[in-house]
Design a protein that fits this description.
The chain is of the alpha/beta class and 498 residues long. The protein contains 17 helices and 22 strands. The chain has two domains: 236 residues, Rossmann fold (3-Layer(aba) Sandwich); 236 residues, P-loop containing nucleotide triphosphate hydrolases (Rossmann fold), CATH 3.40.50. The radius of gyration is 24 Å and the shape is globular. Bound molecules: adenosine-5'-triphosphate and magnesium ion. The site of magnesium ion (MG) has 4 residues, from helix 1.
Length: 498
Amino acid sequence: MSEYLLTLEGMSKSFPGVKALDNASLRLKAGSVHALMGENGAGKSTLMKCLFGVYSPDSGKITLDGKEVAFKSSKEALLGGVAMVHQELNLALTRTVYDNMWLGRMPRVIPHLPFVSDRAMIKMTKDLFHRLSIEVDPYAKCGSLSISKRQMLEIARAVSYGARVIVFDEPTSSLNEAEAEKLFSIIDGLKRQGCGIIYISHKMEEILKICDTVTVMRDGRHIATSPADELTEDKIIRLMVGRELTDRYPKRSYTRGDELMRVEGLNCPYNQVRDVGFKLYRGEILGIAGLDGAGRTEVLEALFGLCTRGSGKIILSGKEISNRTPKDAIRNGFAMVTEDRRGSGIFSILSVLDNTVISSLKDNMTLGFISGKRARHHTREYIKRLRIKTPSELTKIGTLSGGNQQKVIFARWLLTGPTVLMLDEPTRGIDVLAKYEIYELIMNLAGEGCGVILVSSEMPELIGLCDRILVMSKGRLAGEVERGASEEKIIELAYKFV
Ligand SMILES: Nc1ncnc2c1ncn2[C@@H]1O[C@H](COP(=O)(O)OP(=O)(O)OP(=O)(O)O)[C@@H](O)[C@H]1O
Ligand SMILES: [Mg+2]
């Protein structure tokens, strides 16, 4: 018997114009958590999809428990003991939790009779949730659950199939800290029961905290595998990008200008935003910190005309503006990069080019026609500047890796040449090097006089990048800190009205 539960050897896979996997390999031990790391487009998701039967590899050998396997569909993989918790969760949102648990293999009370027993399904669901200490109501509709609960449900489903190997693809990117902690304790439980866990993430701290082994990939190839306790963040970065990265944040070489925008007494009738007022200066990067649900995103939405404002004023360059709709806001020079790229960001079936220029069509038109040449020129420039990994600007954006899709969205808004740039968790799912490049672009824009508002849950990002940070608590401003403030100070303010 091999000492490994699962091995992937010599895995290769090409798509038109890309060699996504080039002789990649991975060896997983039972009862361990194995991190899979690498830059955006390194091939992490593709490798896991080959294992899970979503793609069939061009070559390579997979063995599970010493036996060679080649799953042809995700259903086969599940029955064979391999489960994957995708980032895009695959649940039937209009059905109940217990329905989703047993979808496609409903338990029957009397075998061979075509009746599905709700009672049996509910009992089995409750037992399983209890065993995993998951608190989800089996009767709830999936659409009404938070992302975290949906994820718990997917994990429970994986366990119910008796999975020996469970793959998590960037599971914490939409979770808050408490939810992530809960996930880590479930993962720890699975590990103790002897499961092998493969864990994909760009978050260095959590990798070093929960993983036993780390494998780094680059350009579809295996670069290194090492026990986590022999690694540091810097070592991982060096393996990922192939060179040293001395600073995580670019240096500022300019100072802020005069007042660009003033927000007074902002109130929203349909959410908790109350009496929010602040100033934004030209060339300033203004952070907004707060706990999950403190109303940070809602403030941006209110300014961008995405949610109704009850009272409050927005004064831009001395003139009051209304921004009743996003169209108004865009006309007034506002741009907004949203956190939920799948829900509201990308047009999957359109090309990288179309997705890039869609918000700046006017600049890319001549006499009412889209100027193909100009649009292509702009798009190519951003592909280069942001190192967007794509075979060409005509590739469908849906085939790009998650992080690269986010970069395209970023390029889209930069191209509008905004006066006020609002960013909501802009670097989620983005690798370290690309993050640095995005920070540089943000600073360049600020240097040209743009005002930037940055909402982020990554405290080091706020502290490393912002001139000032507003802290929100329960829909209100709890205070403001200057550059160089400590995390403790920010957290203290975030709890002020809780
Ligand atoms: N279905 C597909 N069609 C065409 N190209 C694809 C497809 N799936 C992945 N690719 C390409 O294969 C490469 C590897 O992508 P993959 O999604 O595996 O990267 P990743 O390491 O998971 O990156 P990220 O950290 O951004 O999620 C990328 O260049 C991507 O554009
Ligand atoms: Mg991926």
